[in-house]
Amino acid sequence: MLSTRVKVSPYVPRSCHLILPLVIAAPMSDVLAFSADSSALDAPLRHPAEVGAMAMSGSSGALTVPDGAVLRDGVAVFGLNNASEPEFYKQKRGENYQFGIGLLPYVELSGRLANYPGTPSNNGVRDLSANVKIGIPKIFNFQPDIAFGVNDLGGGNPYFSSKYVAVSDTWGPLRLNIGKASGQTYLRGMFGSAEYALWNSGASVLAERVSGGYVAGMRYVSRPLSQFANTHIVVGVQRTLGMHAPDGVRVNNSGVNLALTVPFGPNARAVRKVSLPDEPIWTPPVPSRTGSSPQQSNSMAPLWTPPSGVDVGGAQVDLVGAKTSDIPAEVLQRIQVQVEKAGLERVRVGQRGNELVIEYENHRYNQNEADALGIVLGVGAVAAPADVATVSAVTKKTGLPLYQVSIDRRSYARFLRDGSDYEARSTLSVRYRPGDGSDVRWLNNAEGARGYSRVRIDPQLIKFVGTELGVFDYSLSMNIQAYVPLWRGAEAGVSYVRTLAESDDVKHGFLGYAQQPNKLKAAILSQAFWVTDRVLNVTTGGKFNYDATGFQNETTWFVPYRDDQVRLQASRMHRIDFYGLRQDIRAASASYLWAYQPLGITAELGYNRYQSKDKGPSLQLSRWYGDIQAQAYLRTSEADKKVGFSLAFPLTPRQGMRPGWTHLEGSSSFPFKLETRLASKGKCNCITNSVVEELPMVYSARGNLLNHARTGKDYFVSQLQRMREAALVYASVVP
């Protein structure tokens, strides 16, 4: 029997409307992509097989068998079906919960939770399996889809273990698939399938040949639903024919398959019909320069007239070499007003030679700092005088300058106007520890208005999936956090946990240790400061994890000329146990984060001392789809090994509440994890407490200060189109 243990504070589905106030419930189009388009309804429907659906065997494919295609990059499938393999005919009819994602081009990861209840004479089967499928890149025309796959990796009870190769191709409405597999289940030997699309309706009929018999059925794939980030609904029905179990008993049954195929990130708007593929949905009309209406007079039109005798020729003459005039105070004032009107804090505007400098702090656009940067750079590029060569945005947190993003003003202004970022990309630069601005001629030396507190509400979930006790056991609570900024770089915070619901096994049974107390969880004081120009340190002290006292320290080194980071973490705490004895808690880690921005990939290799004093390496592979993070990870020590998969979603709108005395927000990235012990064949994959357990930072530098490690030059270059959209939509910039 396979047992798994998952311990996290994960994403809670939007249907749980009693958990989060509506003010922090983000629209799906805000979460899955930073735009979605209604024209997707008019897009021609692909062949149903090409949209992506999960086969009963665990990976993408036809009704029950895999095919040669992998899920498209950034496409996720959430499925449920009540079919079962013929060898489990002695168990009651159960269900399969499925998930798959195109993690990388030609790489698909998927998981399956099979739950077949037992009878008085036969034990039930409950198994959580992980699968991987690798496609062969197409290198010549008319090459078919070819994929290799492995199902049920590393399970102690490999009920569904198999290895296969499949080849598929489409000719008009007909798609044929043939493959060969070796394994312990019915997916062994030769298999094949045929699917015929019924005109352009999204419906198709299917027939399959597998080991032991035949399968026939139908499948329907909806058109993309633009209001739900171009999600497809997939419905399938099937019937086995002439199927035999391994003991020769004839077994025929029917099944229904329901699935959602969801494109994450930019893929959610890939079918839009626009002249520029990355152009935002909404572009404000350019007001006439003559006969402006009252509304047009408030737009960010050019605000400066060059000195007499200087011929600027519109904005096309390069004045970098010319003498720079002082920017008029009224222009700086209007820039500051426009930036503050967008909801940014601690704003200062000034001039350094031919550079316009805008300092700001953002707690309103919490999904991604790129939105706030887009607003600041957009307002500055449009409003600055023509002889200003560079616009720089200095990002601060709790008043501490963290990094400066600079870009050529004329290139960025043209990019705002026409949507082509070719020229602007090469002019963007990032500098850490930008300094205190003593060399800038500020409009006002004092910072602008700021918020005085923030309240964050996160669901907190401890859960157990696919154990011998049940399909899903849980303890669900609400974590209410309050933060108050103090002096530069310092912030005080408290966290209070209130339990909302628990399963019976947690409330009264064996899993009672997973109950979450209804009391203060943390009370901390955090101080961030620069050690050198590329080394940032965050030290946090106070009360942690309900009853522990101590400190945590996180040091980040930003690797020169790359978006990579080196991170050192250390925690040292103590608590008084039930017997009145002092219990010391120590944990530490050192890791290197490698980033490859063209694909939004990061890989982090580390070495850890875990909570239970066991030590070992860890590896995390992450992929960002807009603001959704998919992550596969492996943690090992001399005591055990654990493998897991995580999907992290923002639980806050793209544009949140305005700052003030206080404001309410959700988590910018909240993970939902599935984790299991990595066991050898035939060994128990049982719940193991404490070992290979990290001690997370209560006040994380990455989560609270560094945009989840997305701060480098290459990253912000990759976000230029998003930054343009933020300027046009949220700051009403008219280029």
TrEMBL record:
InterPro entries: YbjH
Superkingdom as given in the UniProt entry: Bacteria
Signal peptide segment: 1-33
Disordered: region residues: 282-302
Annotated keywords: Signal
Protein name listed in UniProt: YjbH domain-containing protein
Species in which this protein is naturally found: Pseudoduganella ginsengisoli
Compositional bias (Polar residues): 289-300
